C-alpha cells in the first residue's frame, strides 16, 4: 500500500500540462538571457566593497555592513526587510609582526589566525622546529615541539573543485591546538593558498591557547631553505588581538513575495561578513551579490512562491547558520529549498539538485535553460550546500550545491588580494543566470523536493 501511495503522489507531483511546462521553460530561458546582461550583481558588489570594505565580525565595519544590507535590499524593492540578531564570538586583529633574527634579520609576511592567543606585550622569541607536512608534524615525537615555535609548510594543491583546500585544512584549523598540546610556544603555517606572492592568507583555527599565524607561501619556502642548512632558526613574533565571546551579529533578510503561495519560501544567500585584509569581494561579497541579483530577476516574472535572500552575518568565525536554523526551525516545513553561494565568482561548472527531482518538469525547464551556460548537471544528490545553510539542512530543508570554478579562488581568499578587480563581470553574470533560472523554475512550480526524495528508487 505504501508503494502505491508513493506512486500516486509522484504522479500528481510530476503532472504538468505541456503548455505550462513550455511556459516555465520559455520564461526560465528568457530570464537566463536577461541575467547575462544585467548589472545588478556587479553594482551590489561594487557598492559593498567600496562603501563598507572588509567586514570582520565584531567590528564597526560589520555594523556598517548590516546597515548597508538593509538599505540595499530596500532600494531593490525587497519586502519584509529586517535583521535577525544573534550573539557569537568575535576575534579582532591588532598589531602583528614577525621576523627571523637568526641566522640573519629578515621580516616575514604573516597574518594572525582567528582565535589566536596574543603574544605577551612586546612579543616572544623562539627557535623553530619545521615540518614539511601536517602529517609529518603529527608523526613526530611530541617532545620535539616543546618550547619551540612549530612551523608547518604543507602545500595546497590547486583544483577546480576546491578539494585541495579540504585536503589540507587541518593544517590551519587544528594545527595550533595540536602544537599547544605538545608544549609549543607558538604555531606558524604556510598559508592555505595556491598563490606565489608574499601576501599571507588568514582564517579561523580551533583555539589552542598559543599565538598562531599564517606565513606567506614565499616566506614559508624561505624557512624551508634555511632549515636545509641545518642551522638553528630563531623568530621574533608579535601578535596582538582581542576576543569578545558575546559579540553582536546579524543576519540581514529580505523577501520578494510569491503571487499565489507566499508562505512557501525559497531561501538563497551569501555571507555578509569577511576577513579584514582585503575588501571581501570574492569571499563572500560575490555570493551576496549573486543571490540578491538572482532573486530580484527571478521575482520580476512574478512566480507563485516567495524568494527570500539572507545575508548571513558570521560565516568566517561561525554562528550565523546555526542561529538562522534555530530561529526558523518551526518554519522549516514551508521552506521549499535552500542554497548558498560561497566560492567567489568563478563560473558555475557543475551542480546537483535534490534526489529524484531531475525528471520533474520544473527541473527539466531549469536544466534546459542552463544548457548554453555549459554547466554539468550531476545525477547524484548534493551532499553539502554550504556552512550557512547547514542549520536548515539539519532541519530537513532540501538543498542544492552549485559548484563554481575554484581554480583561482585560493590564490585570493582570506588575503589582501580579495578585492573587486579580481572579479570577472562575465563570470559573475553567468552565476546570476544559473541561479535565476533555478529560482524561477522552482518558485513558479509546485515541485516538492521532499516528496520526490521519498519516492522509492526504480
Average predicted local confidence, pLDDT:
95
Helix content: 25-40%
Beta fraction: 15-25%
The CATH topology of the largest domain corresponds to Aminopeptidase
Query: Can you tell me the CATH superfamily of the largest domain?
Result: Zn peptidases
State the CATH architecture of the largest domain. 3-Layer(aba) Sandwich
Instruction: Give the N-terminus to C-terminus distance in angstroms.
Output: 16 Å
- What is the number of independent domains? 2
Radius of gyration (CA) equals 24 Å
What would CATH call the class of the largest domain? Alpha Beta
List the uncertain runs.
Answer: 1-16
The main sheet comes to: 11 strands, mixed
Principal-axis shape equals elongated
Q: What's the total number of strands?
A: 14
Helix/strand-derived category reads alpha/beta
SSE topology string: HHHHEEEEHEHHHEEHEEHEHEEHEHEHHH
Number of helices: 16
Explain this structure:
The protein has 458 residues and is of the alpha/beta class. The chain is built from 16 helices and 14 strands. It folds into two domains: 284 residues, Zn peptidases (Aminopeptidase, 3-Layer(aba) Sandwich); 129 residues, Glucose Oxidase, domain 1, CATH 3.50.30. The strands form two sheets. Strands 1, 2, 3, 4, 5, 6, 7, 8, 9, 10 and 11 form an eleven-stranded mixed β-sheet that branches. The chain has a three-stranded mixed β-sheet with strand order 13-12-14, covered by helices on one side. The longest helix has 20 residues. It starts with a helix and ends with a helix.
Mind sketching the topology for me?
Elements: H1 2-14, H2 18-37, H3 40-51, H4 60-75, E1 79-102, E2 106-108, E3 110-112, E4 124-131, H5 134-139, E5 149-152, H6 163-168, H7 170-173, H8 175-181, E6 186-190, E7 212-215, H9 217-228, E8 234-256, E9 261-271, H10 281-299, E10 305-312, H11 320-327, E11 335-340, E12 348-352, H12 361-370, E13 376-377, H13 390-394, E14 401-404, H14 409-412, H15 425-443, H16 449-454
Parallel strand pairs: 4-5, 5-6, 6-7, 9-10, 9-11, 12-13
Antiparallel strand pairs: 1-2, 1-8, 3-7, 4-8, 8-10, 12-14
Helix pairs in contact: 2-10, 2-12, 2-15, 3-10, 10-15, 12-15
